[in-house]
Amino acid sequence: NAGVTQTPKFQVLKTGQSMTLQCAQDMNHNSMYWYRQDPGMGLRLIYYSASEGTTDKGEVPNGYNVSRLNKREFSLRLESAAPSQTSVYFCASLSTGPGEQYFGPGTRLTVT
Amino acid sequence: AQSVTQLGSHVSVSEGALVLLRCNYSSSVPPYLFWYVQYPNQGLQLLLKYTSAATLVKGINDFEAEFKKSETSFHLTKPSAHMSDAAEYFCAVSLSGGSYIPTFGRGTSLIVHP
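YS: structure for the whole thing
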């Protein structure tokens, strides 16, 4: 099992460009999440998907969109990147009940 | 509503010394509590979790945490620090009986001196 995979690992964008961050899990988990991590801020939830076909906003959804393509895949799209979106982005998945989340290795995004 | 406070953004210890990382939570219903560790340039991985069974929870690498309801705390300890323990540690809480949307603390960076 690969667990949770994310692509790309690194990305540099210019202000106004768009891109999609990809996330996939092979653990048959129902719930998937997108977080951003900034120094001193911990992890902040951008969007989550409790099950295939549903998505909901988290704490910091502005400037982002998501797609739960199927049970395995959950993508995060930046339509018009801004320097404030420079961050490390993590995808996570969770099975059911009070279990732990499984995290991907992260995507380090820089917007200039 | 739920929230987590980690006291101290940085904790510095000597190798072999006791590690104590503090976490206090706020929750309107019985919580589930987690400690995660993040090594440099990696994702988070679970150290241990409390899900209403034993209040003293043992995790990987000799870490343990005790759930104290009266103090709303879930502090992480390790008897003897190792250089390889240097990392960022996150406490998280989620609520029982609902959708599992964990709330994370801001993290504590553990520095281990030789």
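YS: worth flagging: The first strand of chain A starts at residue 4 and ends at 7.
IM: good catch. Also Chain A touches chain B through 22 residues (CB under 8 Å).
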